[in-house]
Specification:
Mean pLDDT: 87
Structural class: alpha/beta
Number of strands: 6
Low-confidence stretches: 4-14, 19-26
Number of helices: 3
Radius of gyration: 19 Å
Shape: elongated
Distance between the termini: 28 Å
Number of domains: 1
Amino acid sequence: MSWFVPARGPGLVLLTVLAVAGAVPVAAAPRCPPRDNDALTPWRQVTWKDFRGKVGSRLGPEAAHIATDLKLDDIEAEVTQEGEDAWVARPQRICLYAAMNKLHSAARPGSDTDYALRHEQLHFDLTELTARRLHPELMGLEGRGDNAQRAEADLRRRVYEARAAGLKALEALQQEYDGSTAHGTTWLQQKAWQRKIRRWLDETPAYTP
């Protein structure tokens, strides 16, 4: 079982302007994705020790749930003037990554089997797959405005709209996975999804933000 943790609002994302009419920043880019910590981990193979949340009413009869998200922490843009009152912002680096919120992920006592963990891992894998598919789309966006600030704001808006659409598609895919496998209880369907997700990941190269 999977659900999404609340995402941060657009105003909390760091948008760094790499160049405005030739200006170059001196600040180093933040690490992306961030290091694994007590609350969050970027995509990897998880263990039951990562499920640190409390079992609540949202879990239902399922053995476990994993809370994942498409994190968007940083947008670095180059802003150029292409005419009178015509500015364009183009992304140079976007920190988008799949993440698991450990504090919102939980397992029912006695249900933490290897089989159940593989089911939850595939939810995380689907989030990583969506991040890989979405990143090139975000990098191809442009923001436009009659000054640099409005071009930056337009780019940020477009990036967030694309991410929101990506989250919606991911949620539909997660629901299809849970529905098809009956939350992992249908063994043949579970194996079929495992093969399918592995193939999708193999066909979709990872990227360096």
